[in-house]
Write the structure tokens for this entry.
Amino acid sequence: MRAVGSSGCETICVIDALDECESRTRERLIYSIVDFYQDRSSIGDHSSTDTQRAVKFLVTSRPDFRTVRDFTRWDREGSEIRLYGEQESEQISQEIDIVISHKIRLLARTMGLRESQRSALEKNLTSIQHRTYLWLHLTFDDISKRLELRNKDITEIIRNIPTNVDEAYTAMLNKSPDPHRARKLLHIILAAFEPMTLQEINIAMVVEECNTSFEALDYWKLETAADRIKNICGLFATVVDSKVYLIHQTARDFLVGEQKNDWK
């Protein structure tokens, strides 16, 4: 950070979804950011202060008490940290409506929707009260997989539009072609101490009680493992740099939280 700041150019670093960091690495990152600004400015080092002014951080996070706690723990200056997301819900909903309108126009163009069909879809999607970007992503992923959109398809979509992220997760997993394997995969991801590689998932998925040797395991082909995971769980599990993750922290909450669903 100091190397960037010493260049003399103002630099803005954007850190998105800080609340989704693993707790220990999140704490270390927050400590480093706070320490960067307080380390030498407190002893009147003006060159250091100029460096600090050249580097700014824009950090986004859900209103999570742990994030605020970690900042206040290391902040010797007593700065005030606020997460205003819950007070911006109306503005966020308006922004999401703009994205919905854009996606519906693209969908209408690619699938040849009539104006009445396009209007009906947009009206019903924007009427959902608790719409979020994640909900939007999951919902449009489901719609885009349809081969065609006739009037009866539009009616079915409107009737079954998920009203929140949990309903979208349920609908996604209920469409799994292999629910047994999907549950096994999700159990493995949840139980893992740290994100597992495709190779590790591959081994864990094919181990059965009847196996007596490593050589007897019937592996997936490693080059098709990522596609198999997507086929089994849809967007619920994702592969990044050959490691397997749940799509979002809310996916973990959906599986282990107090709210009841068929995929606990």
In short: Residues 89-111 form the longest helix (23 residues). The radius of gyration is 23 Å. The mean pLDDT is 82.
